[in-house]
Amino acid sequence: MKVVLIGVGQAGGKLTQALAEFDYEMDFDAVRGALAVNTAKTDLQTLDIETQLIGQDRVRGHGVGGDNELGAEVMQEDAVEVMDGLDGKITAEAEAIFVVAGLGGGTGSGGAPVLVRELKRVYDVPVYTLGILPGRGEGSMYQANAGRSLKTVVREADSTILVDNDAWHDAGESVEAAFDTINRNIAQRIGLLLASGENVEGVGESVVDSSEIINTLREGGIACLGYASAAGGETAEDNINAVTSITRSALFTGTSLPDAVTADAALLVVAGRPDAIPRKGVERARSWVEDQTGSLQVRGGDFPLDSDRIAALVLLGGVERSPRIDEFMERARQAQEEQEQVDHTANFQNDELDDLF
Ligand SMILES: Nc1nc2c(ncn2[C@@H]2O[C@H](COP(=O)(O)OP(=O)(O)OP(=O)(O)O)[C@@H](O)[C@H]2O)c(=O)[nH]1
């Protein structure tokens, strides 16, 4: 799928760069344009992709300090500039636009939903969000911000693929220490999904293409991605059990949104050497995904790759009824209440307020 990526905020910019680099190193050519937008000048200076600083009048290049309402305002005020900056980058060949953001901060959290809305007004291709949910251990500001941002961005985007910051790193690693691991995994796994069907030689009937990704995300709402891989055997026959077993791991342990299984639609992509991908294994795994997700819309396809490993990617569309989302929204709601209490106490201690007597 030919895509243009727009990172908003610090996490959004870093991930956009990581995705663009992976795509370039693998020679997939799925990423046709990349831009990082932020209110913090120093965050942009560390990136190699094209960048755009917004909100200079309001925050003078210092970021919005976790204030996502301010993040949304700044994006709205500078929307014309950002859209002008994208002119020429989003060409007719682009099949989708991805707005990439950490939903817990200020700039990405507030700015992403505004930018998605603006993009949808102008472009005909689907506009998706790749959103990062704060891990359980992150502070209440992050949780509350992400709750509001998620609610808004899901309404605006054609679909929102979520990666939970607790999902794609080893247990025991703190979220901050794990950023590198998470970002590498996102670049590889989301990168492979985007590249499915791109730059593929000897395209056969069973090769997955962009329309299957778009159709899987068509129902809107929240989506997630599962991934697992294993050493491949010599022949396709040798890999029948491997394909079913990695598909199971992708859905149960390798998912970007733990516990999200019930889905409106799904796509199973099996990547590996074309002669090592077993038709029988893929078909068996696809019908297993059907049983697990309860969806009758489970697509399947191959992604020919010159690799000794065999990998399964499971894209689930319409997972918003999952217990994981309910649990997160409850956490966000409690965090917002806690924050309101903190603000309330702060008012009592405010020296600028006169005591009554
Ligand atoms: N996976 C991942 N998450 C990150 C990374 N950096 C920050 N985050 C997460 O993103 C959220 C914070 O968002 P940031 O992108 O840092 O903030 P911002 O959008 O730049 O907003 P301000 O700093 O308030 O202007 C938190 O939930 C972090 O855990 C990263 O490199 N990788």
Quick rundown:
GO terms for molecular function: GTP binding. This protein is of the alpha/beta class.
Helix content: 40-55%
Structural class, from secondary structure content? alpha/beta
Q: Please summarize the sheet with the most strands.
A: 10 strands, mixed
CATH topology of the largest domain: Rossmann fold
Strands in their spatial order, largest beta sheet: 3-2-1-4-5-6-7-10-8-9
Highest-level CATH class of the largest domain: Alpha Beta
Describe what you observe in this structure.
It comes from Haloarchaeobius litoreus. The protein is α/β, with parallel strands linked by helices and 357 residues long. It has two domains: 3-195, 3-Layer(aba) Sandwich (Rossmann fold), CATH 3.40.50.1440; 223-317, 60s Ribosomal Protein L30, Chain: A (2-Layer Sandwich). The protein is built from twelve helices and ten strands. It has helices at 9-25, 41-45, 56-59, 68-77, 79-86, 107-122, 140-156, 175-195, 210-216, 240-252, 279-293, 323-348; strands spanning 3-8, 31-38, 50-53, 96-102, 127-133, 159-164, 222-231, 265-272, 298-304, 309-317. Strands 3-2-1-4-5-6-7-10-8-9 form a ten-stranded mixed β-sheet, with helices on both faces. Guanosine-5'-triphosphate (GTP) binds at residues 9-12, 14, 38-40, 63-66, 102, 104-109, 132, 134, 138, 142, 165, 175, 179, 182-183.
